[in-house]
Amino acid sequence: MEKRLNIVGGGMAGSEAAWQAVNMGVPVTIHEMRPGVETFAHKTGDLAEMVCSNSFRSDDDEANAVGLLHWEMRAADGLIMEMADRHSLPAGGALAVDRDAFSAAVTERLRAHPLVKVEPAEITTLPDDGTWIIATGPLTSGNLAEAIRGVTGQQSLAFFDAIAPIVYADTVDMDTAWLQSRYDKGETEEERTAYLNCPMTRDQYEAFIDALLAADKTEFKPGETAGYFDGCLPIEVMAERGRETLRFGPMKPVGLTNAHQPDVKPYAVVQLRRDNALGTLYNIVGFQTKMKYGAQTEVFRMIPGLEKAGFARLGGIHRNTFLNSPTLLDDRMRLKTHPHIRFAGQITGVEGYVESAAMGLLAGRMAAAQILGRDLPPPPPQTATGALIHHITGGAEAKTFQPMNVNFGLFPPLTDVKGGRRNRKDRYKAYTDRAKADYSAWLAHVPEPA
């Protein structure tokens, strides 16, 4: 067996897989087609580029499954979490990062490692030998997607993912907007003021919804269907589900007090989260969209405080391809018909930066162990990482398989903690305590010879 791991795709999963493998002494080649072959969403040739949000979501490792996943990746000396922490931005209880500095740091660390080679080329076929991880993410190139379909004998599933716009901070009217994290969440003043808030009256909200529904939208190509992931719905799709949907979603007014009119409760609030360390860019939280560019500027400038907004990036929509992993992959993330090939990241049917990186971490360790003549089992399903891989490789129903964020619903139930809404805090703490113990034991485990 060749003593080198080949990784196709240098996103979150591919970058983390490479880092884990080289730390086990296994040389790695990362095959990344960018910038020679561009995608709709990527703007650079850097590794681990963030194309949608700049948030890794909740960092609470005692009461949130995403925060627990952060903890597990830090415990495994994950590169993605290290660089996210190093380039973090105030975001209340969330972990948001300066996206450009983050990806540049991941790229620099990997390129500087003596066991890492980065090959700037597109892989268009599935290799017949060697040890490979396919981590091409939701924007897998057409040629490689066709090759995967040819090998698996199935049509890859697909849905559409939308990108939120980014606004220049100095174009926001601060006589209308104010700085505050929801419920003043955060340990520092910077964290408690991590979001820009734009208030709406009922009349302004209704006019906004009318404009949103009437705006020109991106049309799908013949034969394409709009199977969106519910965690990343375009705002106009949410609005189509009911006029109040946005007000109970990304535009909910709870936990906020208008600094300019503290006695007036907004009917709805649009939040913007800092997107870079300088604080010059803010993304509009939850405002993924498939509106055409001209319509976006018109509709978004209806938001109080954004009447003269300048956009560093407008929103967009792209196809997101993933495998029917419960049918195709084993619990070592290997393609059952071609076990020298593993898959990792969003293409396996996990959703989110952190989930993708976690699957890369696992695939990298498993592939490196195989090259070293060892067998590394997955973490137990009581852990966040183990719950995810169990879900995508057998826990989910293959006929209805859809991408999934990590959540406590994927964990084996607790037997000694009461259920119900009132006991959530104790129950979540019990989940995370159990997971941390089990994950620490898994990390300490020495893989058996294969």
Automatic annotation (TrEMBL):
For this UniProt record, the keywords arranged alphabetically read as follows: Cytoplasm, FAD, Flavoprotein, Methyltransferase, NAD, NADP, Transferase, tRNA processing
State its cofactor: FAD
Which positions does UniProt annotate for FAD binding? Answer: G9, G10, G11, M12, A13, G14
Q: Which domain of life is it from?
A: Bacteria
Give a yes or no for keyword Transferase in this entry. yes
Primary enzyme class: transferase
List, in alphabetical order, the Gene Ontology terms for molecular function in this entry. Answer: flavin adenine dinucleotide binding; tRNA (uracil(54)-C5)-methyltransferase activity, 5,10-methylenetetrahydrofolate-dependent
An example Gene Ontology cellular component term from the record?
Answer: cytosol
Q: Which PROSITE patterns match?
A: GIDA_2
KW Transferase (keyword) present: yes
Biological processes, Gene Ontology terms: tRNA methylation; tRNA wobble uridine modification
Q: Where in the cell is it found?
A: Cytoplasm
Which E.C. number(s) belong to this protein?
2.1.1.74
Reaction it catalyzes: uridine(54) in tRNA + (6R)-5,10-methylene-5,6,7,8-tetrahydrofolate + NADH + H(+) = 5-methyluridine(54) in tRNA + (6S)-5,6,7,8-tetrahydrofolate + NAD(+); uridine(54) in tRNA + (6R)-5,10-methylene-5,6,7,8-tetrahydrofolate + NADPH + H(+) = 5-methyluridine(54) in tRNA + (6S)-5,6,7,8-tetrahydrofolate + NADP(+)
| InterPro entries found in the cross-reference section | FAD/NAD-bd_sf, MnmG-rel, MnmG-rel_CS, MnmG_N, TrmFO
Q: What biological function has been recorded for the protein in this entry?
A: Catalyzes the folate-dependent formation of 5-methyl-uridine at position 54 (M-5-U54) in all tRNAs. NAD-binding protein involved in the addition of a carboxymethylaminomethyl (cmnm) group at the wobble position (U34) of certain tRNAs, forming tRNA-cmnm(5)s(2)U34.
Q: Which family does it belong to?
A: Belongs to the MnmG family. TrmFO subfamily.
Protein name as annotated: Methylenetetrahydrofolate--tRNA-(uracil-5-)-methyltransferase TrmFO
| Native source species | Brevirhabdus pacifica
Whichever gene encodes this chain, its name is trmFO
